[in-house]
Write a structure and sequence with these properties.
With about 550 residues, this protein is of the alpha+beta class. The protein has five domains: about 15-50, no CATH class; about 60-185, Beta Polymerase, domain 2, CATH 3.30.460.10; about 195-270, Orthogonal Bundle (Hydrophobic Seed Protein); about 285-495, no CATH class; about 505-555, no CATH class. Helices cover about 55% and strands about 10% of the residues. The protein contains 29 helices and 14 strands. It has a seven-stranded mixed β-sheet with strand order 6-7-8-5-4-9-10. It has a three-stranded antiparallel β-sheet with strand order 2-1-3. A two-stranded parallel sheet has the order 11-12. Strand 13 and strand 14 form a beta hairpin. Helix 15 crosses helix 24, helix 16 (about 320-330) runs parallel beside helix 25 (about 470-490) and helix 20 (about 385-400) packs antiparallel against helix 21 (about 405-415). The longest helix is centred in the last third of the chain and has 20 residues, at about 470-490. It is elongated and about 110 Å long. The N and C termini lie far apart (about 80 Å).
């Protein structure tokens, strides 16, 4: 039991303002004014003592530094998610501060004291941001904003949800909670601060879904109705804000459940309408789901892979899932490699995990338009991978993702069927991927190859569910092991062999003219290097001479 939990258990008034008369608590509230008003309704002749029932906070070192550098005469409050996280024993990644005036000025002062970086976040609302670079290269953002309204209480009432509308006085550690957010935290409930909170800022719909998944909270019934009513307004929000919330959802826990929630709330038809076309699109065996349900199942399976068997601290002795145990046995030795891989996103504002989950969400997006029933009654989806890559890239561009992210998504969706082909061949013909096949796979996919391997594993489990046999699963894992082994243990030998000769060498030694054939010869040499058939420059040139003879002979 944590220190905070034990404190709450000892006192039902912990974190609340109380009115005390002759040693007895006669009323309570989230602010001193609320406690006083509540006492006056029943004891209007009494003059109660208003007191805050303390909560034992432990400040992280950075927050303590900030407190130390803020002038003593400045009234400033920690607000929003950071207070919520402290009340739930979580470590907040960023800190928001509210003060009566001079938000930008105070931010500049803190920036200088911490030797950090500064930017004006919102000149009109007098909001400045301090950017602290952490030892690991990540960033912590400290936002200093002038009150929204004329007072702290107005500021808090204008926020999104009650659990985020709590302020902590950094001088005396008292809490101001006019919306009873602390009680909603105890009840594990997300409730809108006002009826207009969601229509005023519809991106809060996505935020509510994300936070419900992250904290294991329930969204209050009336708030859900307000979310549905405001779903059509999502287009009024800047693309960047919508994108950021969507990718936080995909990079967080229970991504599949969150996407389902957004669908039920009517948000997807305004956010990603092309995804809804997958609903009800039937597939032939071995698929056990329609395309939409399959897609959500793939998200679930991908989440299970990354949070169980491939997690660095996973203990295979404690799992009762035979399939996850096999994952650990076959490719568990690469857990550290996976951790490093996912710690290097293509964009510092979006996690690598969220990009992979976005690709998984779109990997079958073009199945509805490519659905075809052959003469045997079997349902096929020719070129759904190629066409789906275009759709995914187009949506990525509309969300203003970086060029690197768009390219990665395109490659993943376009190539997501390739691992399935290798696994089928291994299982049915006993033929593992050759060194040349491994080279070609990573030549075409690059770093996305690791994403493709993980997506394929999630895809086959999402396809067959409980019908997946141990034999098939083992074949997939053996293929995954072969590719990962070459990628992480033998990169220069198979995946990216060093160039032994260049185009100038070929033209000079073989008396060739510039042209497309030069590039084709160089690529054939590298393929044979990867296959172990060429190991030095002389062999490369001899191979090229023989190839030229064949070409000339054909002519």
């Amino acid at each position: 039991m944590s220190e905070h939990e034990s404190s709450v258990e000892r006192s039902p008034y912990s974190g609340r303002w109380v009115a005390i008369v002759r040693g007895r608590v006669i009323a309570q509230g989230g602010t001193p004014e609320q406690a006083l008003r509540a006492s006056q309704s029943s004891r209007y002749k009494e003059r109660p003592e208003i007191r805050f029932m303390s909560v034992p906070f432990t400040f992280p070192p950075l927050l303590q530094k900030i407190i130390d550098v803020i002038p003593q005469d400045v009234e400033v409050y920690l607000v929003g998610g950071a207070v919520r996280d402290m009340l739930t024993n979580r470590l907040s990644p960023d800190f928001d501060f509210a003060l009566p005036s001079s938000g930008i000025s105070l931010a500049r002062s803190v920036t200088n004291s911490l030797n950090a970086d500064f930017m004006v976040l919102d000149d009109e609302r007098d909001t400045g941001r301090v950017i602290v670079t952490n030892e690991d290269g990540s960033f912590t953002y400290l936002d200093f904003a002038t009150y929204r309204g004329s007072s702290l209480e107005e500021d808090l009432r204008d926020r999104d949800f009650t659990i985020n509308a709590i302020a902590l006085n950094l001088r005396d550690n008292t809490i101001h909670d006019p919306m009873d957010g602390a009680n909603d935290i105890r009840a594990r409930l997300i409730r809108a601060c006002t009826p207009s909170a969601l229509s005023n800022d519809p991106v809060r719909i996505l935020r509510a879904v994300r936070q419900a998944a992250a904290f294991g909270f329930t969204i209050e019934k009336n708030t859900r109705e307000l979310m549905k009513q405001s779903a059509s307004l999502i287009g009024n929000v800047s693309v960047e804000r919508v994108r950021d919330e969507l990718f936080k959802i995909l990079g967080g826990v229970k991504a599949s459940a969150s996407i389902r929630a957004l669908d039920m709330l009517g948000v997807l038809q305004y956010l990603t309408p092309e995804l809804l076309q997958m609903k009800g699109v039937q597939q032939s065996a071995p698929h056990i789901h329609d395309v939409w349900t399959h897609t959500l199942s793939v998200l679930d399976q991908l989440d299970q892979l990354l949070t169980s068997s491939l997690r660095v601290d996973f203990d295979p002795e404690k799992t009762s899932d035979m399939f996850m145990g096999l994952v650990s046995m076959k490719i568990g030795r690469y857990r550290e490699n996976f951790a490093r891989y996912f710690s290097s996103p293509l964009n510092p504002n979006r996690s690598h995990r969220s990009l992979l989950f976005f690709a998984a969400l779109y990997h079958d997006v073009s199945k509805p338009e490519t659905r075809f029933v052959d003469e045997n009654g079997r349902i096929r989806f020719f070129d759904h991978d190629v066409k789906g890559a275009d759709v995914a890239a187009e949506r990525a561009r509309s969300l203003n993702l970086s060029n690197d992210e768009i390219e990665r998504l395109y490659v993943i969706v376009k190539n997501h069927m390739r691992i399935h082909s290798f696994a089928d061949r291994l299982e049915n013909e006993g033929q593992p991927p050759s060194r040349k096949a491994v080279y070609r796979f990573f030549r075409d996919s690059g770093k996305a190859g690791v994403d493709l391997i993980l997506l394929a594993l999630a895809d086959v489990r999402g396809t067959k569910g409980n019908d997946l046999s141990q034999q098939t699963w083992t074949a997939y894992l053996d293929v995954a092991r072969i590719f990962l082994e070459n990628y992480w243990e033998r990169p220069e030998e198979v995946v990216n062999p060093p160039r032994l000769i260049d185009g100038n060498d070929l033209m000079k030694e073989l008396n060739l003219k510039p042209g497309r054939s030069i590039g084709q010869l160089l690529e054939s040499i590298r393929e044979n290097q990867a296959a172990g058939k060429i190991i030095d420059r002389d062999q490369a040139l001899e191979f090229a001479r023989e190839e030229v003879k064949k070409i000339n002979g054909e002519k």
